[in-house]
Amino acid sequence: MSDKKEMEAYMQLMLSFAKVQKNMVRFIQKSAVKKGLSIPQYSILMTIIGCNEMTQKNIGEKTVLPKSTLSQAIDGLVKEGYLDRQQVEDNRRETLLALSTKGRALVEELHLQEDGLHQAFKEASEQFTPDQVDELLEAHGKISAYLTQVELEVAAK
């Protein structure tokens, strides 16, 4: 393949990822605003839903939010009753967070929201066969793993 064609191919792939991400962000912004959440608060809720509880540090690592933004967003979620916060027993400097009953109900509403990301993505993915979904997941996983590896190598230098 010529250099020009090769460049066009990977540029199209990059642009494809960018378009999907841009559309997802639009859905997230709309859903967050509808529920009175900031984007960081939405991200925190979607991060913690897969676990019963998470430390604030782990949430920060997964969301890549700046510490001040993370703290402010968590404070708001605790104040609204969406998150429960407690000190880690053997490490008083660490905070453990869990979705409250109210928080779980909110996340469920976000997942079921007809004009929300989860429903739109579900409907969009229904056009693929299970094998195509597996292939997409494998391809995305390879790209993600490679980019993570390169990032770690650059950081180590």
Automatic annotation (TrEMBL):
GO biological process: response to stress
GO molecular function: DNA binding; DNA-binding transcription factor activity
Record's keyword annotation contains Glycoprotein: no
HTH marR-type domain: residues covered: 30-133
Highest taxon, organism lineage: Bacteria
Alphabetically ordered keywords of this record: DNA-binding, Transcription, Transcription regulation
Name of the molecule in the record: MarR family transcriptional regulator
Native source organism of the sequence: Planococcus antarcticus DSM 14505
Keyword Secreted: no
